[in-house]
Specification:
886 residues, mainly alpha
Length: 886
């Protein structure tokens, strides 16, 4: 009862909130809908719901989509939001720790508090504030300080991201990347994240609907980077920091603009005093005032100066002020052009206090392009030992020149990174800088290759660039560590690819993406996969490496297949095949043919898929690749089932199973058992089909392959239905549907059609697949329920005709001739399961024909229920691009 009451309370809150958001009273809404105001009140109390014919009018009145109305009434659909049914939505708390000793900004804090109060009294608006100003002005410090103060008012959590709109890499974070990260923070499992970026954005908006969240978007470049990340409904607050004014957000989205200036004199002195210590500051007030003035009252410069002063308590502040005064002018004020806001002196002063090794370490780290750097990567980049790197990083952190934002991971402030890179250009030779960049690229390339090998031991390998002396790739003991490493370094690897591409390290620019492909596809980063493969192909082309071009073209084609862009995929496959032919590389050509077969199957061109598969098999046999031969035999078996040649399919699958067993390839063996079961089903051998499916299911569950497990369960349900066991069919399909819905894939729709048809027909075993050689009906592939039910009705009438024909020959069923179609078909199925009518003897040794109406010949097996052809849950060719090209 409490669960039902909670649902009613939530419904009341959602409906009432939306009505108030559009400025309507209950009486006004009732007038728009031509209903009594008490009816609206009962809706909002959760006592009743609007009738179906009223819901479109309600959607127009509330200015929402029809789907949104359903969410207001019943809550978000878990298949759309990605949250597991029955699971409480997670509450993300992503705010980083605020800077210690925050000082000043009283007027700005008051303005932000007023914004939140105004938003609470303004229906229909999302509160947005943009905090602008020059680099180092304290935008992030203010945003985080206020966010921590206000976090308690946002019970659904906080999201935070550094958009890197202004930084040394010059590559801001794309909104699609941010949304993908936010989906992880909101608790959406990786397997539930849709492949297409627009679908991910839709899922993100659905998850934020009706939530009160605080979203901090730090270091934005422009309005276009921010706008896709705004929540869709009121109640949330967005804080944006940027060096740009972002006036477009004010004009189009109602954002409040808040521009920061440097601290005033008193605030700057207060900041210095709080960090240096009251005793020392009170002894030398004039020196404190001068340090604040020489720092231009810039918060970042003040913080660095204060840290240095606090680290040397025995030095008089007047001496520190003199040092700063003498070195003023070394770094021009950034962005504003005001020479009084010079931070170069502060940076150079802190830098000059470093030891020789730490200073070199600092300079070379400035060449790193990623959002952060790990301890092992820093050691490789600088050519030092792990222990030495740890000691030097601690020295830089104590000087506030670098921050350990997570255990073992360090980040620069943008200004400090720019300063470090500038110092490296002055102090280090071009050769030394390129060696440092080369070492860190070696580190990422060889560690990523090790991780990729743990994730996919049978992957196609390439000859990597040999590592430079001083590089120490990370040892990864198992696949779990490999996944954790990829998770931590993903954005760094993308930045490293861009750095290699821009700095002329072309060999790394195509090899690093190759090592990432399995992880990107496994995690659903299809857009990133396509982007890095474009970079890889361009780099291979610049090198004139034909083999690399062929490899990259093939992988880029595979990435486009995963995105559903079949035209681009075909173009790159054709290009790759032509390059392999020039090289005389028959193995590469075979892999392209295999991929072309998968592509043709995705497009329902089954004859073309078979032709490509046979060509690939011929080439695999010519080069003696027995592993690939077993995989391809299974593919061919599947293509033959699609074309109705089940005898050939059975032969190919048995060969594939034999080869897979010889080489211990359990996954190919399991896939071949599934295809063999499919062929046996269509040959009428239902018991053999069931046994094959059970073997396949055991393999898939052993390896945790949920997609294949769901497919096999669908096939098991088809076999059970054909055998007349509707209960087991229903159970198998329901379990398959649970997996498909958990994975959020379109195949779930076809399984729902099967279950709907099972309910509509009362569990009849109706034929679904066309007979061998018979063309499919015009609605083939449809998952539309009315269309599917219409087809079933036509099949019922066919069954009724067979029933009447038998009624004339069988006196036992003549009495039921006046019954309805459904009753007569049930009777026919019952008799078919029992065998021939009384008076007609069975041949010795023959059991009853199970699950097939007597009018069907043995080579015309009962078809699966639930749709037609490809749209009815048939799988694509077994080897995915993770098993083939990757």
């Amino acid at each position: 009862m409490s669960g039902s009451g909670d649902k009613h309370v939530a419904r009341r809150r959602r409906l009432a909130q939306r009505r108030k958001a559009v400025g309507l009273t209950q009486e006004q809404l009732a007038g728009l809908l031509d209903v009594d105001p008490t009816t609206v009140a009962r809706w909002e109390r959760g006592e009743t719901q609007p009738l179906p014919w009223l819901r479109p009018k309600l959607a127009r009145a509330l200015r929402v989509s029809p789907e949104r109305v359903e969410e207001l009434l019943d809550g978000p659909d878990p298949r759309r939001t990605g949250v597991r049914p029955g699971a409480a939505p997670p509450v993300p708390r992503q705010l980083p720790a605020e800077a210690a000793g925050f000082t000043g900004r009283a007027a700005e804090l008051t303005a932000l508090a007023r914004l939140l109060d105004d938003a609470a009294g303004t229906p229909g608006a999302v509160a947005i504030s943009t905090i602008g100003g020059t680099a180092g002005i304290g935008k992030t410090a203010l945003a985080l300080h206020w966010a921590h103060l206000a976090a308690g008012r946002f019970g659904d959590g906080q999201l935070h991201v550094n958009l890197r709109g202004f930084g040394p890499s010059g590559v801001p974070v794309a909104p699609e990347e941010v949304i993908r990260g936010f989906l992880d923070a909101l608790g959406v499992p990786a397997e539930r994240v849709p492949a297409r970026p627009d679908a991910q954005a839709g899922l993100y908006r659905s998850l934020l609907a009706d939530r009160k969240m605080l979203i901090v978007l730090d270091n934005a470049r422009d309005e276009q980077q921010v706008r896709p990340l705004l929540p869709p409904s009121p109640g949330s607050l967005v804080l944006v920091t940027s060096r740009s004014q972002l006036s477009g957000l004010s004009a189009a989205d109602g954002a409040r603009l808040l521009t920061l200036d440097v601290l005033d004199r008193q605030e700057a002195i207060q900041l210095l005093t709080s960090r240096i210590g009251n005793s020392q500051a009170e002894d030398e007030p004039e020196a404190v005032d001068e340090i604040a003035r020489l720092c231009g009252h810039l918060p970042l410069a003040l913080a660095v100066a204060a840290a240095r002063a606090a680290a040397r308590p025995g030095f008089p502040l007047s001496a520190l002020a003199a040092e700063l005064r003498d070195m003023a002018g070394l770094l021009d004020a950034l962005e504003s052009g005001d020479p009084t806001t010079s931070v170069r002196a502060v940076f150079s002063w802190s830098y000059s206090q470093l030891g020789t090794d730490a200073a070199r370490f600092f300079r070379l780290l400035g060449l790193h392009s990623g959002p952060d750097v790990s301890l092992p990567a820093a050691a490789s980049m600088t050519g030092t030992t792990r222990a030495g790197a740890r000691r030097l990083l601690r020295e830089l952190a104590r000087a506030h020149l670098i921050t350990e934002h997570a255990p073992g991971r360090y980040v620069f402030h943008d200004l400090l990174r720019a300063y470090a890179a500038d110092q490296s250009r002055q102090a280090d030779s071009e050769a030394d800088r390129r060696e440092a960049v080369g070492r860190v690229l070696d580190h990422y390339l060889h560690t990523a290759s090790t991780a990729a090998g743990l994730l996919d031991p049978a992957r196609e390998t390439i000859a990597l660039v040999p590592p430079r002396p001083g590089t120490a790739p990370e040892p990864l003991p198992d696949h779990r560590q490999a996944l954790a490493w990829f998770d931590a370094e993903l954005r760094v690897l993308l930045s490293a690819t861009a750095l290699a591409d821009s700095d002329g390290f072309d060999a790394y620019a195509w090899q690093i993406p190759i090592t990432m492909m399995r992880f990107l596809d496994t995690r659903g980063y299809y857009s990133e996969s396509t982007a890095v493969q474009r970079t890889a192909l361009a780099a291979a082309t610049r090198l004139g490496d034909t083999a690399a071009q062929a490899f990259c073209s093939r992988l880029l084609g595979g990435a486009f297949v995963l995105l559903g862009d079949y035209g681009q995929a075909l173009s790159h496959f054709d290009s790759s095949r032509e390059l392999y032919r020039r090289l005389g590389n028959h193995l590469g050509e075979a892999k392209v043919c295999q991929n072309l077969g998968v592509l043709a199957d995705r497009q329902s061109r089954h004859a073309d898929a078979l032709a490509h598969g046979e060509e690939a098999l011929h080439l695999y046999r010519a080069v003696g690749d027995r592993h690939a031969e077993a995989d391809m035999l299974n593919n061919l078996g599947w293509f033959h089932t699609l074309l109705g040649d089940y005898e050939k399919a059975r032969d190919h699958c048995r060969q594939a199973i034999s080869l897979a067993r010889d080489f211990g390839n359990r996954m190919v063996e399991g896939q071949s058992w599934d295809t063999l079961g499919f062929a046996e089903h269509h040959l009428g051998n239902l018991a053999e089909a069931s046994a094959c499916y059970q073997r396949a299911l055991g393999v898939f569950r052993e390896f945790g392959d949920r997609w294949s497990e769901a497919e096999t369960r669908v096939h098991i349900g088809d076999t059970c239905q054909a055998a007349g066991d509707s209960s087991r069919a229903r159970d198998a399909w329901r379990r398959a549907l649970e997996i498909y819905e958990d994975l959020q894939v379109p195949q779930a729709a076809a399984v729902r059609v099967k279950l709907d048809a099972l309910r509509a027909t009362g569990g009849l075993a109706l034929p679904v697949f066309p007979r061998p050689g018979q063309p499919q009906t015009p609605c083939a592939g449809s998952t539309d329920v009315p269309c599917a039910l219409a087809c079933r009705m036509r099949r019922r009438k066919d069954a009724d005709k067979r029933y009447r024909d038998r009624a004339g020959r069988d006196g036992r069923i003549r009495r039921a001739a006046a019954g309805g179609i459904r009753h007569r078909h049930r009777r026919l199925r019952h008799l078919s399961r029992r065998g021939r009518p009384a008076g007609r003897r069975r041949r010795p040794g023959r059991g009853p024909v199970v699950g097939r109406p007597r009018g069907l010949r043995p080579h015309q097996p009962a078809r699966r229920s639930g749709g037609h052809g490809r749209g009815a849950g048939q799988r694509s060719a077994r080897p995915s691009f993770r098993q083939g090209p990757h």
